[in-house]
Fold this sequence. Notes:
It is built from five helices and eight strands.
Amino acid sequence: MIQLTTPISEEAAKALQVGDTVEISGYILCGRDAVLPKLLRMIEDGTEASLGIDLHGQVIFHTAVSPAGVGPTSSNKLEIESSIAPLSAAGVKLHLGKGALHPETVAALERYNAVYAVIPPVTALLGSKTGEERVLAFPELGMEALHLIKVDKYPAIIGAAHGRSIYEK
Length: 169
């Protein structure tokens, strides 16, 4: 089991291989289809610094944060998958979700030395490993707002890295 602590360094991201099992600790972002396009607009406008966090070395979990806990949503939804390349270019090193990504997205991860990890849909387990949480932006979206949460040893499997994917046939 590889222990990762946020922010994730370029070297740590480069060392991850498809099939590695990891545990992630530290602060991570949570966002899905309603908020990721808004976050991309902030990056395009150069206003992402107003969030009060640095995207370099960050982890983004494709999820909403609700009283029931957190659990992955499908990362291959258009609004989510289309955010992976630009967020990686902005410095995000690890994308957490579920489902197969298109080959173009896997190639973009390689280009930006970022990786994608699948996380099993186990909301109860993740709830016990989630500490602090706060809304960073877009509170009008409720549980789909951009959240920052503190996690302790989130389990995941690297699903795409260095131009390869566990979903390849």
